[in-house]
Amino acid sequence: MQLSNIYSLFRKFPNIVTDTRKIVPNSIFFALKGENFNGNQFADSAIKQGCEFAIVNEEEYVLNDRFILVENVLTCLQNLAREHRRKLGIPILAITGTNGKTTTKELSNAVLQQKFNTCATQGNLNNHIGVPLTLLSMDEQTEFGIIEMGANHPEEIQNLCAIAEPNYGMITNVGKAHIEGFGSLEGVMKTKKELYDYLYDTNGVVFVNVENKILLEMLNQDQKYIAYGNSEHADSKAKFLQASPYLVLELRSEIGKLYVKTKLVGSYNFENILAAVTVGRYFKIDEVDIKKSLENYTPTNNRSQLLKTDHNVLFLDAYNANPTSMQLAIENFARLSMKNKVLILGDMLELGMEAEKEHQKLLDLLAERNFEQVFLVGKIFSRVNKITSYPTFKDTMEMISTIETFGLKNKNILIKGSRGIRLEKIIEKL
């Protein structure tokens, strides 16, 4: 069946599902394949549970005319998303980066909602499947799209741009993450730059932190960009005031100084906030509305959260971790003017051959900062750690089984590690 025919079906039944546990009325099932599953095997079940049609790519699963055979289900999903994006014709802002892309996406969405009916990436749907699903969740009421783009191998950002066709873009920063897939920091930079390259070729606009020399060097000659930062060359500026525990900043605007008291922890979030401010200003959002949206934003999903339990104050940032974000989090925590500081740190995953070296660097940093207590969780830390005063556990469950013996009460505790370590499971014990 031609894409135009499938698009006509999508207009009638606009809910796309890839999981039979999430079927809703007026939906079409896409039988995606993975290393450990074959969606074709669930197509019949999807129809029986209420899907109007099922898109499959194995002829044996075509049982009647409600099963549509295509050459590649994933490619069909991506092409359908691109077609829908073109039909809508709305502005799309793409955000990628090693750290801060999700927070920047959430803050930008909060700001843009003051003027537009927006649709932004939900959760971690930022890959070759998630981006198409986000685009297909947009409808005629959507006035602005914000697409987060993740990558763990070369050319992934290029491919996501070919699907989403953004008009605007931002790289929050570039650091060491997913080295296992990229091979080197240079590989990370080259892949992130694919967003700049796409926008250069299509005459789009990029938002750039001009205090980040790496990002400036990645720009193409004569690239169209809007600058933010504290440089005199920045189009949008702000002043960092404090981060103890919440981040407070001063916006410098035409109407004077605006003090913004956020609910975000971590001074490293300053540039994420300023990025969202810059996006808002570019799209003519009122300064007072920008301030209101930033102050009302409450972080969720284990990112930059401050949680107060019956016994402790938790600085929770356990959704992701890489050498850059881990170092920033540790140094920010060290600067905070409070006592009884404790760190619970989990392994940084997907670092390949760099893993043990990067974990040792963190151990050296921790020793320099002389924290009261440090707990380490994960197989890599278990191999590398030689500091006997740092209790080390092979996984989160092992730490949970003994955590009560350490008397962690009336403490300020930073919790950070890669998502796969699942440090959030410790919260109920603290």
Automatic annotation (TrEMBL):
- Which GO MF terms are attached to this record? ATP binding; UDP-N-acetylmuramoyl-tripeptide-D-alanyl-D-alanine ligase activity; UDP-N-acetylmuramoylalanyl-D-glutamyl-2,6-diaminopimelate-D-alanyl-D-alanine ligase activity
Which InterPro entries would you find in this protein's record? Answer: Mur-like_cat_sf (IPR036565), Mur_ligase_C (IPR004101), Mur_ligase_C_dom_sf (IPR036615), Mur_ligase_cen (IPR013221), Mur_ligase_N (IPR000713), MurCDEF_CellWall_CoF430Synth (IPR051046), MurE/MurF_N (IPR035911), UDP-N-AcMur_synth (IPR005863)
Gene behind this chain? murF
- Summarize the protein's role: Involved in cell wall formation. Catalyzes the final step in the synthesis of UDP-N-acetylmuramoyl-pentapeptide, the precursor of murein.
Per the record, the major location class is cytoplasm
The entry's family comment says:
Belongs to the MurCDEF family. MurF subfamily.
Domain annotation Mur ligase N-terminal catalytic: ranges: 15-69
| Species this protein is from | Ancylomarina longa
Q: What is this protein called?
A: UDP-N-acetylmuramoyl-tripeptide--D-alanyl-D-alanine ligase
GO CC term, one of those recorded: cytoplasm
Instruction: Tell me the keywords, alphabetical order.
Output: ATP-binding, Cell cycle, Cell division, Cell shape, Cell wall biogenesis/degradation, Cytoplasm, Ligase, Nucleotide-binding, Peptidoglycan synthesis
